[in-house]
Amino acid sequence: MGFARACSVALVGVEGVVVEVQADLEPGVAAFTLVGLPDKSLVESRDRVRAAVVNSGAEWPQKKLTVGLSPASVPKGGSGFDLAVAVAVLGAAERIDPRQIADLVLIGELGLDGRVRPVRGVLPAVLAAAEAGYEQVVVPEETAGEASLVPGISVLGVRSLRQLIAVLADEPVPDEEPVEEGRPDPMLAGLMVPGAGIGTGLAADPAGGPDLADVAGQHTARTGLEVAAAGGHHLLLSGPPGAGKTMLAERLPGVLPPLTRRESLEVTAVHSVAGLLPPGQPLVRTPPYCAPHHSATMQSLVGGGNGLPKPGAVSLAHRGLLFLDEAPEFSGKALDALRQPLESGHVVVARSGGVVRLPARFLMMLAANPCPCGRHTLHGAGCDCPASAIRRYQARLSGPLLDRVDLRIEVEPVSRSDLLDQGRRGDSTAVVADRVREARARAAARLDGTPWSVNSEVPGHELRTRWTVSPGALAAAERDVDRGLLTARGLDRVLRVAWTIADLAGRDRPEAPDVALALELRTGIARGVPAGAVAGIGGRP
């Protein structure tokens, strides 16, 4: 009787659970039994592993073989267990020393010829192995860079099972023929899955992306864009078609600061699981940009799918921008499903296959027309929409959802003078991005030692008691609360925006002009902000 064990990792959402792969050989009729709650793709590994072992020059044991995956209560799926199953079987057959593989974590799919193919989710799998105390992992060569992002882990990248057997048996390692230059590499086919993302992409470098200076006029909208980027505040742009709402949204990712190391690992893990990580780019350093179509379902936004839920648009936009163009055209259920992640920064999805907690701390930007035809706010444009149709259209964005949006800005059509006067271009993306980074640095210094990193995350109680504004600065906001124009949550959000404006202006704490501008950006009502009080923000003179 032979027995050996190795380890692999089962992914539940973007979190991993270390799984012990046990192989047991007993005398009897040759058979291969796989137990431990495997799904269909994992059950099929029996044929892949057998063919890979034989084609790698090793002998397949002609005995009763049982492979168990523990803990048995954890659902396991995918082809990433192939390598661990093959090594455990070879250890039980004493082709390799079972003691060498007992604490070895192996992740990878096997081709019938013995080549090791890359799989999705290597980074979160290796992170789970490191947190569990394991120090050595074996992954496909194509994903070795992704696995090496985890500190304190020894990573071995292999191209074939033959190479791994030679390494574990202390034999000369055979060379595998590299892919000829100019020919496609079929081994990369499993990394990026077409259709896995929902209008998502990784923002390009700001130097090569669209420039904010291309936007003509729209000084108030540019101010809102800068404040949103500096403090992580959600933003609604409402205005007629052609005013530049989508144009502004496409330039917002270039204004956001680069991701920190921790944020980069979080974003990379989500994109790796979703099959959206570009080959050769193991670490995502720029904020992601996700713009789903308005026909997107609730499951595609918050996560779902058969069995265990997969990341949705809110998770693919984690630490980046979620842009909902034509927001009133989305279904009401889909929009209202965003309330919980907007508050908590994560989404908990319960399905028959299990409950998954997915990260979802994103900056949301909504764009909406004022009516179905879009011409309601234009003078003399001939809007034929009945008043009831306009009310129904605007009511598609529910009050509870809008209450979570810090900035609500009416975008006016661009005037002819702004459009044709090329000498009055606004600040470029690089200039605005520098101001945003400086404002975030001030906020980070103030919030050092707390669980929060940007102003939009700070609870209202802390803003009212721990970090207070200048005396009398809240007088206008208090009057709006008394009139019913602001809810308690709305007042907290005005305070957060005021702190962001103060950070952009270089002040130690918000003053009356900062609160007045925050109220103006939230309510759309002009507050008579004195000229020069917030100079520089959004390109203001």
From TrEMBL:
Family stated for the protein in its record: Belongs to the Mg-chelatase subunits D/I family. ComM subfamily.
The protein, known as: Magnesium chelatase
InterPro entries linked to this entry: AAA+_ATPase, CHLI-like, Mg_chelat-rel, Mg_chelat-rel_C, Mg_chelatse_chII-like_cat_dom, P-loop_NTPase, Ribosomal_Su5_D2-typ_SF, Ribsml_uS5_D2-typ_fold_subgr
Coiled coil spans: none
Domain (AAA+ ATPase): residue spans on this chain: 231-415
Domain of life the protein comes from: Bacteria
Gene3D superfamilies linked: 3.30.230.10, P-loop containing nucleotide triphosphate hydrolases
GO molecular function: ATP binding
